Amino acid sequence: MLPDSFVIYLDENHCNNKKILAVLADAGVIVERHLDHFERGTPDTSWLPTIGAKGWILLTADKRIRYRSNEKQAVIDHNVRLFYFSNNEMSGEQMASALRNALPAIKRLCERQPAPFFAAITKGGEVNLREKFTAI
């Protein structure tokens, strides 16, 4: 089930990416930007609880969150829906293109898969559920 409003939270690395912001605006998606809520360098474990509590959908290129035990646990504990770009070497334009293609699948996955989970967005815009967890 989707949150009351479909909101995508852009992490610190992407919150000023004009191409991604344009894709989301064109699609009518509500966007929350990291730097509108937190200082630069705020540890992920400090802001992940807010994302989960508000039901926002996290978009990041930091797929390493899946492997850092304290960050992964924060995703699980706070029921975060996390989407990451599977290729860190994509340009902003390539990420925007992938996101444009992926948005329908992102919405479908959020409708059918309860939080928390990790899902990858490929360069072509496919969305692949990587890990799902039982909500606490």
Give a verbal description of the structure.
With 136 residues, the chain is α/β, with parallel strands linked by helices. The protein has one domain (7-132): 3-Layer(aba) Sandwich (Rossmann fold). It has four helices and six strands. Strands 2-1-3-4-5-6 form a six-stranded mixed sheet. The longest helix is centred in the C-terminal third of the chain and has 21 residues, at 92-112. The mean pLDDT is 90.
Notable traits:
136 residues; alpha/beta; Rossmann fold; six-stranded mixed β-sheet
- Order of strands side by side in the largest beta sheet? 2-1-3-4-5-6
Low-confidence stretches: none
Total helices: the number is 4
Q: What is the approximate shape?
A: globular
The top-level CATH class is Alpha Beta
Euclidean distance between termini CA atoms: 16 Å
The CATH topology label is Rossmann fold
How would a textbook summarize the main sheet?
Answer: 6 strands, mixed
Mean pLDDT: 90
